[in-house]
Amino acid sequence: MFKYVYTDSTLRIVLVGHTGAGKSASGNTILADKAFKVECSSNAVTKFGEKKQGKVENKDVLVIDTPGINDTEMTQEKLKSEIGRCIEMCAPGPHALLLVIRFNRFTMEQQAAVKWIQENFGEGALKYTIVLFTGKEELDGKSVEKFISENPCLQKLVKKCGDRYHAFNNNDISSLQVRELFSKIENMMKINHADCYTKEMYKSTHDLIARREKERKEKKNKRDRETEKEKEKAVLWKGVGAVAGALAGTATGAVIGSVAGPYFGGATVVVQVGAKAMTAATAATAGSATLGAGAGGLAGYGRGPKIRQLYNGLHNGVLNLVNDNSAEKEKTDYEM
Ligand SMILES: Nc1nc2c(ncn2[C@@H]2O[C@H](COP(=O)(O)OP(=O)(O)O)[C@@H](O)[C@H]2O)c(=O)[nH]1
Ligand SMILES: [Mg+2]
């Protein structure tokens, strides 16, 4: 099998961006070769990273083409690991990440792709990034600068990338635009002391993302558990309320019954309840006590949260009192 051989002096470039942005076409322009397959439709062609090598401007160049960030046929996990593999393909890593954006098609979808790259490559990647616009000839005489200045999103992005950008017309086979790009890459490399973006940087960004995701999930689980506990406590306090209400209701009902009982037919009327015979007064007392228990229980159940508040207030009040006293005691001890 043919094995790629490249030296330390080989310029390593990775093309990233949205499907249809012109990554493969730009790779071909750079290498002045039909190295990568260019797709007319917006269907993603590159499912796996591909690398091609060539000699450009007397320089050994290695170009890696990557899958489109918005490829819906790939799971996020697969996409992330494939892009990681692309970084590894040019170990120790690329000198330049070319973030490819098609002029006049900087849609919400493309913006989402740019956001994906910023998040997944990490802020550290920006110092190795050059924004590469494609479709330059579609600007109809408008300057690249003017186009950028009219779009706050692009302006922000270019600024983040150290004001590094370049524009390609991939239908233009002259080498001037490639020479200009190389000069921008060389300037960037000088600033970076020929350093490169590494797979470790990519991995640490992903470890960070995974850690944040884990923390987010743990926080959510904790919140869910606390809500569940709160619900259980509320039911418990409703129960406490029901019992307290029933007791209070029984007592109140009994008092009312004993007062009102004699007025129901006098003490001589005997009421038969089950096997027991009782006077109307006793029956009235028992009846209103039972009614009182039911009504009190219901009222207490509804007032469970209020009772809980009352309990918490009393509990906190007592605690404050105890703390105040001990503070007072400490103060006194100290002063003595
Ligand atoms: N007019 C014009 N079309 C371009 C340019 N760059 C790419 N394209 C077209 O855009 C389409 C997608 O290009 P491709 O390189 O396959 O995009 P990729 O999915 O990012 O690899 C193809 O039809 C290309 O011919 C350009 O600079 N000008
Ligand atoms: Mg492609």
Automatic annotation (TrEMBL):
<dbReference type="InterPro" id="IPR045058">
    <property type="entry name" value="GIMA/IAN/Toc"/>
</dbReference>
<dbReference type="Pfam" id="PF04548">
    <property type="entry name" value="AIG1"/>
</dbReference>
<keyword id="KW-0342">GTP-binding</keyword>
<keyword id="KW-0547">Nucleotide-binding</keyword>
<dbReference type="GO" id="GO:0005525">
    <property type="term" value="F:GTP binding"/>
</dbReference>
<dbReference type="InterPro" id="IPR027417">
    <property type="entry name" value="P-loop_NTPase"/>
</dbReference>
<protein>
    <submittedName>
        <fullName>GTPase IMAP family member 7-like</fullName>
    </submittedName>
</protein>
<dbReference type="InterPro" id="IPR006703">
    <property type="entry name" value="G_AIG1"/>
</dbReference>
<feature type="region of interest" description="Disordered">
    <location>
        <begin position="211"/>
        <end position="231"/>
    </location>
</feature>
<comment type="similarity">
    <text>Belongs to the TRAFAC class TrmE-Era-EngA-EngB-Septin-like GTPase superfamily. AIG1/Toc34/Toc159-like paraseptin GTPase family. IAN subfamily.</text>
</comment>
<feature type="domain" description="AIG1-type G">
    <location>
        <begin position="8"/>
        <end position="206"/>
    </location>
</feature>
